[in-house]
């Protein structure tokens, strides 16, 4: 991932940690509200996405960062959505465990 894209995603995560929202962060469809956010960044004819959740008070969880490979439309590939859902469940389990510590 190019350094410029990493900088944008890092800034978005820094804002999220301080309770703010990056201007380009939008809720990811299919996750029920604004708890799972996506930042999309274009660089050198490629598109990159970072998906993270702010749903848990204990931490910000980065669920997936990737280069969009699809040549048809802007929809996130089902494989990526499946991975995000799996990681979201793991984050949820981890957050519950953190509350009990």
State the separation between the terminal residues, measured CA to CA.
Answer: 35 Å
Major sheet details: 4 strands, antiparallel
Q: Fraction of residues in helices?
A: 25-40%
Low-confidence stretches: none
Figure out the total of helices. 2
How are helices and strands ordered from N to C?
Answer: HEEEEH
Number of strands: 4
Summarize model confidence as the mean pLDDT. 90
For this structure, the quaternary state is single chain
Strand content: 15-25%
What is the topological layout?
Blueprint: H1 3-17, E1 26-27, E2 36-43, E3 46-53, E4 61-67, H2 78-99
Antiparallel strand pairs: 1-2, 2-3, 3-4
Can you describe this structure?
This protein has 101 residues and is an alpha+beta fold. It has one domain. 37% of the residues lie in helices and 25% in strands. It has 2 helices and 4 strands, in the order αββββα. Strands 1-2-3-4 form a 4-stranded antiparallel β-sheet, sandwiched between helices. The longest helix has 22 residues, at 78-99.
